[in-house]
Structures are given as C-alpha cells and as structure tokens.
Design goal:
By secondary structure, the chain is an alpha+beta fold. It has helices spanning about 5-20, 35-40, 85-90, 105-120, 125-135, 145-155; strands at about 20-30, 50, 60-65, 70-80, 95-100, 125, 145, 180-190. It has a single domain (about 20-190), classed as endopeptidase fold (from Nostoc punctiforme) (Alpha-Beta Complex), CATH 3.90.1720.
Amino acid sequence: MEGIDLVICIGIKIYNSMRKHKVYILQMYSQTIPSKLIKFFTHYKYSHIAISFDKNCNVIYSFGRTKYNSILNGGFVKENKNGEFFNYYKNTLCKIYELNITKKQYYRLKNIILNMDKNSYKYKYDYIGIVLRFFKIPITFKYKYVCSYFVADMLFKSNIYNFNKSSYFVFPKDFENIKNTRIIYDGIYKLYN
C-alpha cells in the first residue's frame, strides 16, 4: 500500500469509528391499570420507558408484562409494534427521543441488551422495588428491574448518560432532561413509521 492510500485508509477507519450512531428512547402511556397507577403517583403524562435501536421503533426493549393480558408475569421484554400488546392497546401514547451516540457506545449498549434478551428467563419485573422507589428506599435485587431503572442503567453502563443519581431512582420524567436528544415523534405509537 502506498503512502497516500495508507493515509486515506486510516482516515476512513477513524471517520467510521467516530461516526454517530443513534438510539431511541420512548416515553409511553398505555392506559392499562398499572400505567394509570404510576401516572397517578408520579403526576407525569408517561408511565413507561423503552429503548430501540431502529428509527421506526418497530422493536423495543424494556421491563414490563411478558404476556399482554397478565400483570403478574413481568420481566425483560422485547416487544414488537405489531405484537400482541400493542395490537390490544392500540392507543398507547408515546414520545420518541433520538439520541446520538458513538459507535463504541452503540455496540456496547446493543451487546448488553442482546445478552439480556438471550438470558431473558433470568430477568423479572421488580414489583417490590417499584414500591420501594417511591419511598426512596435503595434496595435492588439481582436480575430485577422496572422499565425506567432498566433504560437508565443501560445508558449508564454503556457510558452514554449519567443521570447524576442512582439509575434505581430514575423515573420516566427524568428522560426528558437527557442532553443532546431530539424529539422525533409525539403521538400514538402504532401510527409512528
């Protein structure tokens, strides 16, 4: 390889490593009984948080019901916009934030979440923790999350964002304060393309 070709090759590699990737954070309100309770206690429009790697947000990751018709089976969920839950709760509202991150952050985040997906049977919804959080009691349980704790923890572990408080105490409202985000949609989730 000649000198100029080597410089161009190195320049391309540096450019590709610095190129921005994007993730999408969704604030949601599905109008289920649990979401109404969370909304009542938090006094905030949205009661659920999810994260997606694709701009259309067809697949989202979070902690919530594993079966659309039962609140008792909760855990890590990989939900599809055209899946059971959103076909049943068609009027789920959402606000979608686009967040620019580095390639390294993107692949670190994706690796962590895909590993959780592969081992989803281990992860459970933290029914006790959701109550303790409202009383500011910082007790965590291995493999247990609520939605906002999960997304905040993923952003922290991927060196994307630090809320300046424990991820455990992050609530849905806190996500509107993430710097360098851009709102790309506000409306009914199923209508977003």
